[in-house]
Amino acid sequence: MRMGSGTFAACCIAIEVLGVALFLRGFFPAPVRSSSGTEHQAEPPAPEPAAGASSNWTKLPPPLFSKVVIMLIDGLRDDFVFGSKGVKFMPYTTYVVEKGASHSFVAEAKPPTVTMPRIKALMTGSLPGFVDVIRNLNSPSVREDNLLFYLLLLILLAAHVTVCTSAESSCYFCSLPWLAAGGVMALISALLSAVLAALTKPFVDSRRLRTDPGPCPSRWSDVGLLAVLGTVGHALSLGASSFVEEEHQTWYFLVTTLGLALCHEAYSTCFLGGDAEPPGCHRTERGLDSMVPVQGGNPGCDVLELGQTHRRPASLDGPWGRDRWLVLASPWLTLACCRLLRALNPTGVQGAHRPGLGHWLASSDHRAELSVLAALSLLVIFALVQSRCSWASKVALGLGLLGVYCYRAATGSVLFPWQQDNKDISRGVVEARFVYVFVLGILFMGTKDWLKSQVTAAASKVRTRGLWETHSGFILLAALLSRPHNLPVLVSCLAIQAVMAKFIWKPLRHDAVEVTVMHYWFGQAFFYFQGNSNNMATVDVSAGFVGLDTYVAIPAALLTLFATYMGPVLWASHLLNFLSSEAGSGSALSRACFCYALVCSLPASAYIILVTSLRYHLFIWSVFSPKLLYEGTHLLVTAAICVLFTAVDQTHTKP
């Protein structure tokens, strides 16, 4: 049985996930923890001193105080205590400090600068491991010597950081046996060979199918060339700390350049007719399997070209039709939306401190404006999504979006028209669970239609509707987990998807590979449009508690993961729907899965090599390590996406 390219890509990405997990396990330092008094008995006291000798350990000095109270205030900055702001915000503490009744100092914190590792460092005196940032959400009990067990014996052990950056030890890869190292190199060589074979296959097949000595012209399109150069350039840019800190600028530049390239292609197609094509050439629509004959009378050019630039569709040949203007305006609309979203959530090291439109909307003084914007955004979401849903899903979607607004009103983020004060503010647990019911209902109906398509006559229509309803369930969940001022980000995402699908990808006949790369790029850009960055502090952990009374590990982790990567997930889900709705979509899905896995694996693999070579860099823990965690998590999300693509592709190829 021959393995398809999509299945092969899913298997490769799964192996890569395991490899990255193994690399993370060996890369991050593992602190040596001292034994706890609860696990081991105290050592016996030293023997009595000899006669005539003096000892000072048998009699403890009297305590100065009977009790000690240790108070920790999470997120308290030093400028809130000292200086002019301290007099305003904490007058008594400032008075005690200035009087000299207390000793004050500012400690320099080492990364990761999140709550649990910092408390752990204060209580134990040891350096927490960087991987403790993951345990911040569900911290286990500290089982090493700490102030809570031993208040001013203060017998603290210094943490022994076992990393490959030590000058006396070899790195992880150098410590591998020669046989294992050879196996790794053989696997990498095999993967590279498979990638090169897949990339060169269209050109080899096109040459084999030529029957005319005068072949039709074939070259890379502008968008295809930009996709290759942009993907490789982004992977190489991760070797610089500034590019890692400001990676959002790279993706903003790439999607802006992509929009300009699409403008050029649209104008060339509508006004100049694109690149000339010999009359009578038969070609396939790129990414699909159906043959599309070109009008003309040259029977001698029966050539299957997969990489050539196509002529404009017949619908664009009319004199200044409406479709032509919409095709010309679509890239500019996309560029305008992206520019507005950049001003909504400034991110990165250089822009995080700048007040954006999102900060203005989230302030308590502008709740009325935020309420109107949230209500309009939810209405637009319903209008963009409901057209391809069944009636049951439409009702569930409408009630779910209404529940989203009720949830945000219950938490005090937005206002009801009859709500005048904050007396009715709650955690919104009931409202959020109300939305979860409709999310699960829509996902269930979509999965049911998708499975039903395997046994019904109208399989294509039912399958397409089922996949779209599954996509609608993801959109409803994203609306619930998004902060109110980020709902325009979701609206822009859906609007760009609708415009690009109707007026760019279909009329200009982009192939499956180009459409996949564009979806990936926009997914990455929307990851940063949400306000995310490569800093762990921008992760919105509050999404993991939506609808929960108490902390539950697995649901909280899944909700936080989806809320963080909703941009890439929604664009991947739309890619699946777009390709599944086209004729001959089975092979397109397989190629799209392979391409999506490739463009995600390339930066991750390059970054692991770069991080290994930069392990002595000054910013290895503050800049490169958080990005490494993001890359590993993104690779896990990509593996799940590839599994979904493979599952849908298998149902398409079933007889």
TrEMBL record:
<keyword id="KW-1133">Transmembrane helix</keyword>
<protein>
    <submittedName>
        <fullName>Phosphatidylinositol glycan anchor biosynthesis class G</fullName>
    </submittedName>
</protein>
<feature type="transmembrane region" description="Helical">
    <location>
        <begin position="6"/>
        <end position="28"/>
    </location>
</feature>
<dbReference type="Pfam" id="PF19316">
    <property type="entry name" value="PIGO_PIGG"/>
</dbReference>
<feature type="transmembrane region" description="Helical">
    <location>
        <begin position="368"/>
        <end position="385"/>
    </location>
</feature>
<dbReference type="GO" id="GO:0051267">
    <property type="term" value="F:CP2 mannose-ethanolamine phosphotransferase activity"/>
</dbReference>
<keyword id="KW-0472">Membrane</keyword>
<feature type="transmembrane region" description="Helical">
    <location>
        <begin position="147"/>
        <end position="163"/>
    </location>
</feature>
<feature type="transmembrane region" description="Helical">
    <location>
        <begin position="628"/>
        <end position="648"/>
    </location>
</feature>
<feature type="transmembrane region" description="Helical">
    <location>
        <begin position="397"/>
        <end position="418"/>
    </location>
</feature>
<feature type="domain" description="GPI ethanolamine phosphate transferase 2 C-terminal">
    <location>
        <begin position="428"/>
        <end position="636"/>
    </location>
</feature>
<keyword id="KW-0812">Transmembrane</keyword>
<dbReference type="InterPro" id="IPR017850">
    <property type="entry name" value="Alkaline_phosphatase_core_sf"/>
</dbReference>
<dbReference type="GO" id="GO:0005789">
    <property type="term" value="C:endoplasmic reticulum membrane"/>
</dbReference>
<dbReference type="GO" id="GO:0006506">
    <property type="term" value="P:GPI anchor biosynthetic process"/>
</dbReference>
<feature type="transmembrane region" description="Helical">
    <location>
        <begin position="551"/>
        <end position="572"/>
    </location>
</feature>
<feature type="transmembrane region" description="Helical">
    <location>
        <begin position="175"/>
        <end position="200"/>
    </location>
</feature>
<feature type="transmembrane region" description="Helical">
    <location>
        <begin position="593"/>
        <end position="616"/>
    </location>
</feature>
<feature type="region of interest" description="Disordered">
    <location>
        <begin position="34"/>
        <end position="55"/>
    </location>
</feature>
<dbReference type="InterPro" id="IPR045687">
    <property type="entry name" value="PIGG/GPI7_C"/>
</dbReference>
<dbReference type="InterPro" id="IPR039527">
    <property type="entry name" value="PIGG/GPI7"/>
</dbReference>
<feature type="transmembrane region" description="Helical">
    <location>
        <begin position="430"/>
        <end position="447"/>
    </location>
</feature>
